[in-house]
Design brief:
heterodimer, A: mainly alpha, MetI-like fold, 14 helices, 72% helix, B: 358 residues, alpha+beta, Rossmann fold, 2 domains, six-stranded mixed sheet, six-stranded antiparallel sheet, ABC-type maltose transporter activity (chain B), ATP hydrolysis activity (chain B), nucleotide-binding (chain B), ATP-binding (chain B)
Chain lengths: 315, 358
Amino acid sequence: MAACDAINDSETKKGPVPEGWLKRAIQRNGAGYMFLAPWLIGFFCLTLGPALISLYLSFTNFDLLTAPEFVGAQNYVRMATADPKFTAAIKVTLLYVALSVPLKLAFALAIAMVLNRGMRGLPVYRAIFYLPSLLGTSVAIAVLWRQLFASDGLVNAMLAMVGIEGPSWISNPNYSLYTLVVLSVWQFGSPMIIFLAGLRQIPTDMYEAASLDGASPTRQFLRITLPLLSPVIFFNFVIQTIEAFKAFTPAFVISGGSGGPINSTLFYTLYLYQEAFSYFRMGYASALAWVLVIIIAIFTAFSFLTTKYWVHYDD
Amino acid sequence: MATTIQLNKVEKRYGAHDVIRGIDLKIEPGAFTVFVGPSGCGKSTLLRMIAGLETITDGDLMIDGARMNDVAAAKRGIAMVFQSYALYPHMSVYKNLAFGLETAGYKRPEIDRRVRDAASTLQITDYLHRKPKALSGGQRQRVAIGRSIVRDPKIFLFDEPLSNLDAELRVQMRVEITKLHERLGNTMIYVTHDQVEAMTMADQIVVLRGGQVMQAGSPLKLYNEPENQFVAGFIGSPKMNFVPVSVADATGFNLDGQRIEAGRSLHSTAGTALTLGIRPEHIVVGDGEGQSLGDAQVELVEHLGGSTVLHVRPRFGAEPLTVVLPGQQPCRNGDRVSLRIDPARCHFFTPEGRAIRG
């Protein structure tokens, strides 16, 4: 009886941490920690660690060759006051986001609505339409795009067949960014699949009730489909916008890494890359990276704040 | 202003699969008609064909004498209440009620008047600002009905509207829909698989099976004079008992080697196999008038308070019989009871299931 009391006391009383607690914890939950380990190592070594180091580097003049030297907020001040390329990159990126995201979402929704009409061979079409999204961010597709839109490319060859002399889409600063926008819209598969899943969740009897009320297809789309799909639209919108802010490969390949012509395809990430690996201004590039993080965070937070006005959750 | 609906040899096929097979039916102006039948009998499909939500493969749908096969759903003057309510979850109750009126181009004051009138009728005025998710099942059902009322349609269609409600609420809503029909006087068609709903609400019941009308008529007509064994078994709760018998002579039948007087002509030659149908409430336990069916052993007693249901196993036949006795009876499992029937309340069916009229 006394022995039992002693054991109970030691388990229930809160006192100093018993000796060897770490050893006991590992013995108790060792298997769990083993399973967690790959992710934890990856997160601390490849994500959180480099992120914190880049935050520190953003306040230095690190150039990869010499030891970093603390320079305070100098990098950020330069960005705000004395870097026209930074301003150009921001403008190009914002324009790209503003054009590519709505167009891609609209295109993805349109295709999803067509595929949602219960056609035969739907899985085949779904796979075909999704294919560009699998290939789209690859260097190969960007190279292909470059060939398509070159002055002697396929697009201009087809335009020539109907008597139109096409411009050099890639080397003309008036068109180069739009070529990248078209490439982005072409990669509509991922949001389309999500839209399709969302459309399938809308009960058909709501459309039937609306059709009995005399609602036209347009009215049904505006008053039923869009509101009921709004959580999915919001999800796609946030994801695609973040992706657009981070776009790099197409601009790098098509402009040959220069962001040209005349900075017309100088995406923010491309400029960051140039600063880091062309000019070895790693401190400044780190500051650029953190500004991009802040821009994306502000945008995402603002998007979430607007949800109460236009996103309709059923629960 | 009530409307006549007529179906002339209406058919529906999905590829080679016949769902509705040549239905002829007339629904009188202002009638409350119930389509009833087991799952897959085509009752909802038929309703949706009338609504215009399904195309009609063959035959004619006439509303007030005009052919409606190719008329858009919105132009048929029909409102429908769906099994799932089909309320728009992102709209308030007010907006749900107003949606059809806005679509039809009504002015705002008229919309407001109609919505508030319907809300008052259905006692949902206090919930007009709420979203459907903030309503109970019964309140949602009222909103769904309100959405159909505001448009002042000629015909109301109900597709199993009470199936998602609990038993108590079903009874309550059943009464409310019946009262609503009395007040509005519109032609209404109501689909259900619940024959109690059909019996309590309908002016006319249409029993469907395999895409065909098995019988159409008033509830008591179907109960008292079923035209076939299917209707006899489907209408009435608990369902009718069926016992295989053979014809003894012009007015009698053999059961378990004993001749029992049928009290009418069976229109069959001696030895012909028939099915005797007798409703549980028409079997009497104990001595008294009528024809004896012999003794039976009580296998199970269900005390319902107002009545007592016995499941008994008679000497004849492998199937137990169900007996409903009025009031509370002192029966226990294992008791032996003697069964009697009134021949006038017996039904006889041919091997093909057709009823034999005396």
